[in-house]
Design a protein that fits this description.
alpha+beta; 12% strand; 11 helices; 270 residues; 3-stranded antiparallel β-sheet
């Protein structure tokens, strides 16, 4: 998967897993360096990545209660993480009856850079391409899509519609044109190849991960997994090829979450 386990990605995963502190308290820089060091990220890389996240408006410099340097999440960052939680930890099987959200956009030629940004953001949200300028996703993604377009000042170029697919091609045939299903399946298989052995190892009788082992294994699994519910719009199984690996990879991640997340939190001293 592209950009997997970069320092910046690991910092985002760390804040998502353990960094939403009570009363918007900041995460100490020294603790970020310690926790990323366990994952072989050196201190200069941590500081550089934190600076980039600060420039993007996601992290805000703050002092901790004892006066140490730290970074708190911005409101935009909290919304991004909260929106992400609904995908990353989803357990319910999506239903055909939920319908679809359509994004229809038109960007003036003079602002074509925004057209590229709009397309890339819709793709990262999990939209497929139904026709030129018409993108489609399951209806449950509407709120997150609206948040994203508003945050990026792109809402003025887009109309969003909710509806059902009425034909003429069977919906299963249509979704195979709207999304690159083989590429999405490959991402799930790569996740399973990497994480199923981890799940088997820590699920074995007598296996008891230390807080440090649990933290390291969980953060790497989360950092790999959190991209997948965006690349994959998580369609009803009736619309997907037989033996679709998405359900199995979701089950594997959720099992790792149950097994390792709380234990790993014991290693995070904030």
């Amino acid at each position: 998967m592209a950009e997997q386990h970069t320092p910046r990605s690991l910092i985002v995963s760390l804040y998502g897993a353990y960094g939403r502190l009570p009363d918007d308290a900041p995460f100490p820089v020294a603790e970020l360096i310690r926790l990323l060091g366990v994952l072989a990220v050196d201190a200069p890389s941590v500081r550089s990545s934190v600076s980039r996240l600060k420039r993007r408006g996601l992290l805000l410099p703050r002092r901790t209660a004892d006066g140490a340097a730290g970074y708190a999440l911005s409101d935009d960052a909290r919304m991004l993480l909260d929106d992400g939680d609904r995908r990353i930890y989803a357990r319910a099987e999506p239903a055909l009856a939920e319908g679809w959200v359509l994004a229809v956009f038109s960007v003036p030629e003079a602002e074509r850079h925004k057209r590229h940004l709009l397309r890339s953001r819709l793709a990262r949200l999990g939209f497929g391409t139904a026709a030129p300028g018409v993108w489609i996703a399951p209806a449950r993604l509407y709120e997150e899509t609206r948040h994203t377009l508003e945050r990026l000042d792109l809402a003025g170029y887009v109309d969003l519609f909710r509806g059902d697919h009425l034909g003429f091609a069977a919906t299963a045939e249509a979704v195979s044109r709207w999304w690159d299903l083989p590429s999405i399946a490959k991402l799930h298989e790569e996740f399973l190849d990497a994480q199923e052995p981890v799940l088997r190892a820590w699920s074995a009788p007598g296996a008891e991960p230390t807080p440090e082992h649990a933290y390291r294994a969980y953060l790497l699994a989360l950092d790999s997994w959190r991209r997948l519910p965006y690349a994959d719009p998580v369609l009803p199984l009736a619309l997907l090829p037989e033996n679709w690996p998405g359900s199995r990879s979701a089950e594997a991640f959720l099992a790792l979450h149950e097994l390792l997340h709380a234990r790993g939190g014991e290693f995070v001293r904030v």
